[in-house]
Amino acid sequence: MFFRELDYIYAVNIFSVISSPEVDSFWFSTLLVYDISALVEALSAIILIVLFLMQKFGTSRVSFLFSPIMGAWTFSTPLVGIYSIIHHYPGIFKALSPHYTFHFFWRKGKEGWLLLGGTVLCITGSEALFADLGHFNRSSIQMAFLFTIYPSLVLTYAGQTAYLIRHPNDHEDGFYKFIPKSVYWPIFIIATLAAIVASQSLISATFSVIKQSVVLDYFPRVKVVHTSSNKEGEVYSPEVNYILMILCVAVILIFGEGKDIGNAFGVVVSLVMLITTILLTLVMIVIWRTPSLLVALYFLVFFTMEGVYVSAVFTKIPEGGWIPFAISFFLAFIMFGWFNGRQKKIEYELTHKIDLERLGTLLSDPGVQRVPGLCFFYTNIHQDGLTPILGHYIKNMRSLHKVTVFTTLRYLLVPRVAPEERIIVRKLGLKGVYGCVIQYGYADTLNLEGNDFVNQVTDCLREHIEKYLDCLPSNPVDIQEEISALEEAKLSDVIHVRGKTRFYIGKNCKRFDRIMLAFYEVLHSNCRSALPALSVPLSQRIEVGMLYEA
After folding, report:
1. Which helix H or strand E contains 309, and what residues bound it?
2. Locate the K+ potassium transporter integral membrane domain: which residues (predicted)?
3. Where does the pLDDT of residue 447 fall: very low under 50, low under 70, confident under 90, or very high at 90 and above?
């Protein structure tokens, strides 16, 4: 946390001023310290705001700076650590012996257990490695950690410990005080830049997690922009970015003391490691079918070690550790409310789906007219049915276009879809009724404006009609008539129909479902559309509303 480190530095500098003979007023010195703290908090907030505002440009634009910054940090701090070890306490590596660990806890008892809550921050940052999987492969991360990051951390912390053995009263700001004065400001600049880079990795991790949650339909739909054309993991979400910015700045201004924020971070990291151990154990048992003995050895060792850390860190909950819990419960409530509403929607659609036989019955009604034109009806096409909005539309409009293409937009986890695989069409067995699936990757742009999209779909339909009817004992005249009807419909009129559903909460609805569905409606009304942003002219758009009875 760079704002905490800055706070300590400015406090040390100002104490050196107010302790001079010229300034001996206690109230004046207290006021100066308060002003410096406020200044540090304001500067920290400004740095974070600038960092969040730069997210829309993507990490690829500035990522060329990350490697030099982290390289300077990785290789400079262990050099300072080696200097501190030689200068203050060359025998510091005796601390690696389990003998001293056992002796420490045996002598300190409960106090030693509580001190674990202060050392857990030494291993923070490892959780960001999971976010880096979206940018680097596993081998590169393993090599970077084993050959650079891990040795650097060991030497740096060993150097700080050697310094603190000789200067035990400097434990509150051990990092900056163990740095020699001749290299103090260069290390300070490198540390601040490294903190910004570390913050960037966590911001990118947040975007990746939200994007995966949206794809799995566990989170309200937000805008997700891929800032790289060849890396699927580099994403940006404007809504998430600005909400995260407001929360971070609020935490800094409300909990300005770095100790509380450090406690909150420690609680999160320790819990992440413990939960990861439990989940990995389940994966080893259920998926990997690992032998029971190996699973037991892994679980007992890591669960015991991490459980002790978690138990110690939990004592910090009243001192700022409650912050991540409050945010987590709020996000969990949003995710549960959204998932519950989506499940209710899927259940209703499966119960009231329109199959092809039912569609044929509706179209055979003498009161239903087949009006001229080409209609793209956006829906999720199932093998055994269509959306109930279709039946609602036909019953109320009493019509359907002579050529109707039920269109589904399918997102694929690839940069770009090959042109020959982009549009897949099929005949649904009814006159003038077709199915169309448009596949696109995260680097593709969907622009349905103009006649280009319509021409592409109709060309694919023409080829499909010719191939489909060639396989049947049909008259070539039938083929020509269907193709002519398609061309005539395209020239007549083109419209795009999309559904917009809401839940009707009836009197028979249970109180719990009533509350959760009302919350889902609030989320659904303020989230992005299920369809991507399509540049369809307003004059060609039709939205069909329908109430789903809960």
Report:
1. helix 292-313
2. 35-358
3. low
Segment (H or E) for 543: strand 541-549
Residue 364: strand, helix, or coil = coil
Rounded-to-integer distance, Cα 385 and Cα 382, Å = 5
Q: Specify the DSSP element, H or E, that contains 484.
A: helix 476-492
| pLDDT tens digit sequence for 272-288 | 888 989 999 999 999 99
Identify the three-state secondary structure at position 218.
coil
- In the structure encoding, which two tokens stand for residue 427, read together? 């005949």
DSSP 386: B
Question: How many C-beta atoms surround the C-beta of residue 444 within 10 A?
Answer: 19
**Alpha-carbon separation of residue 322 from 240, 266, 317 (angstroms):** 22, 11, 5
Cα separation, 407 vs 423, whole angstroms: 10
Which residues touch 295 (CB under 8 Å, ≥6 apart)? 281, 284, 285
CA-nearest of 438, 381, 378, 440 to 412 is: 440
Give residue 276's identity as a one-letter amino acid code: T
Separation of CA 211 from chain center:
5
What are 324-339's pLDDT values in tens digits?
888 889 999 999 999 9
Spatial distance between the Cα atoms of 124 and 115, rounded to a whole number of angstroms: 16
Count CA atoms within 13 Å of residue 42 on its CB side.
6
Query: What are the extents of the domains in the chain?
Result: 59-254, 257-320, 350-549
Question: 211 CB contacts (<8 Å, ≥6 apart)?
Answer: 224, 235, 237
The residues pairing with 425 across neighbouring beta strands, listed in sequence order, are: 436
Q: Cβ(221)–Cβ(530) under 8 Å?
A: yes
